[in-house]
Amino acid sequence: MNKNKVLLFCVVLMTTIVILWNAIALTSCSNEDNSVIPVIPDDTPVVQEWNHDHEYVPFVEEGKVWNCCSVSPETDIYETIDCIFTMSGDTLIGEKNYKKVFCQHEKYYGDNEQHYYCAVREEAYRVFAVEAETNVEKPLYDFSQPQEMLLLSYDDHEFARMSGTRLMYWPSKQLIFMLYGTSGAEIDYYYGYGDWVEGVGLFSGNPFAGGLNSNKADSLFGYPIVLISCTKDEKCYYMMDWLAQATARP
Hints:
The protein is mainly beta. The chain is built from three helices and 15 strands.
């Protein structure tokens, strides 16, 4: 066997080993375990447009939990989970049915008890909230018409909710909506209000405080909080760690 044949044999052997290794890695990843980030081939688009026919993930669900952490104003560092929102129980406000949301946050309340925070309901892919000690309903999220860009206004904030996209590296299958400020009828792409995740809400701020991230301290707590994870029973809808793969990919 001459030198060229030996070299060719080595190249074929190494190629075969790489193919087998990748095949084993791909088959070992399972979406059934949401703690595992699926392996994405390099030629797979990271973002894909999605239509209205996908399976909608509701925001309002009994037993859903949002694990958050407060951001240190001195260091601007995300610390440990210290603010937990839990959706539990029903209430009737103005002849409409709502789910109650409780907050456990020792840093603010001074104890580890669950305190009534707000009530939420969902209708036609839109989420509404009634804050504690009020009977005034306000819009929180609008997940309707995911294929369209919507111009929305919450309190004094006008913004554009872009059409929904599906991130291919995301272990769960919700749509994600980017939010931008507006100047008249024009969209200001340089000023972002964060992102909404279907079934989860805002992950860059308090998911129950107006649905927008204005880069300011939370209006109730007096300091910003961010979402670490959102779960219901054994199902995981959001993990902050999932964002790492987004920043790692071009």
